[in-house]
UniProtKB/TrEMBL annotation:
Pfam families: 7tm_4. The chain crosses the membrane at residues 30-51, 63-89, 101-123, 143-164, 199-223, 235-262, 274-296. GO terms for molecular function: G protein-coupled receptor activity; olfactory receptor activity. It is a multi-pass membrane protein. GO terms for biological process: cellular response to lipid; G protein-coupled receptor signaling pathway; sensory perception of smell. It comes from Mus musculus (Mouse). This is Olfactory receptor Olfr683. Residues 44-294 form the G-protein coupled receptors family 1 profile domain. SUPFAM superfamilies: Family A G protein-coupled receptor-like (SSF81321). It is found in: Membrane. GO terms for cellular component: membrane; plasma membrane. It comes from the Eukaryota.
């Protein structure tokens, strides 16, 4: 009878997501700021996409890259946050086997796609500031199409094995102590050896995100060097303000990932709810800030939003 019970547990089609196992009572309170951040992220990115789509003056490569970033942010938010809020509000902790690994794939691939998009946008700014005369011939619509294909193909193909490897494991338990189906949270429930699974994610994660970050830092280093040579009054301050805010946002994106790795490695000394909260916020704060820092602070975008509002009113 006991063996039959164990077998049914292994074959159970659903996982159970237990958010903040030590703080179940205050989940409803946490749902309020998360809901506001979710609405801000969705609203800001949707506004940016609609503005760029409707305004002919914004049909340029730089704004197409912004659209790509907003699209990635929307997909990431929709993949993670509605399920988290459903757990908080309706105690809907069950997630299907296939749905869990689909969520894992989207999170891994789209987070690295976002990092790669930051890298392409940093290259765009490098060409615009360091090689302004060559900008129209280098950053073209065809360049954006090729860049989008590269972003999707590189990160989609290289992160695909992560959920595939996890889905092939035999599971002895189905209670995930997390709000989302991260690879490590799910894989450690397995009866099998997960060393290769962990190693692959570690190597691919650091290879993709690390190479992107190195290229971003190099691009902004060249930009800073070029900007400091500009003699026009106010030009240096304006360029530093724009590029500085971009670079800080990128560093925030990368730092949160680093903190997640550290908290997982030192999980014995850090409360388990800390990495869970960081995981959720990493799918909310960058999507909420990206359209504001990259879009609304840009004069042409602001003018496009005003034009759109005038037409609607």
């Amino acid at each position: 009878m006991e063996a039959q019970s164990n077998t049914s547990s292994i074959l159970a089609p659903d996982f159970l997501l237990i958010c903040f196992p030590n703080y179940q009572t205050w989940q409803h309170w946490l749902s309020l700021p998360l809901s506001l951040l979710f609405l801000l992220a969705m609203g800001a990115n949707a506004t940016l996409l609609i503005t760029i789509r409707m305004e002919a003056s914004l049909h340029e490569p730089m704004y197409y890259l912004l659209s790509l970033l907003s699209l990635l942010d929307i997909v990431l938010c929709l993949t993670v946050i509605p399920k988290v809020l459903a757990i908080f509000w309706f105690d809907n902790k069950s997630i299907g086997f296939s749905s869990c690994f689909l969520q894992m794939f989207v999170m891994n691939s789209f987070l690295t796609m976002e990092s790669c998009t930051f890298m392409v946008m940093a290259y765009d700014r490098y060409v615009a500031i360091c090689k302004p005369l060559q900008y129209p011939s280098i950053i073209t619509d065809q360049f954006v199409v090729r860049a989008a294909i590269f972003v999707a193909a590189r990160n989609g193909i290289l992160t695909m094995p992560i959920p595939i490897l996890s889905s092939q494991l035999r599971y002895c338990a189905r209670i995930i102590r997390n709000c989302i189906c991260t690879n490590m949270s799910v894989s450690k429930l397995s009866c099998d050896d997960i060393t290769f699974n962990k190693l692959y994610q570690f190597v691919i994660g650091w290879t993709l995100l690390g190479s992107d970050l190195i290229l971003i830092v190099l691009s902004y280093s060249f930009i800073l060097k070029a900007v400091l040579r500009i003699k026009a009054e106010g030009a240096v301050a304006k360029a530093l303000s724009t590029c500085g805010s971009h670079f800080i946002l990128i560093l925030f994106f990368s730092t949160v990932l680093l903190v997640l790795v550290i908290t997982n490695l030192a999980r014995e000394r850090i409360p388990p709810d800390v990495p869970i909260l960081l995981n959720i916020l990493h799918h909310l704060i960058p999507p909420a800030l990206n359209p504001i820092v990259y879009g609304v602070r840009t004069r042409e975008i602001k003018q496009g939003i005003r034009n759109l509002l005038r037409r609607r009113l």
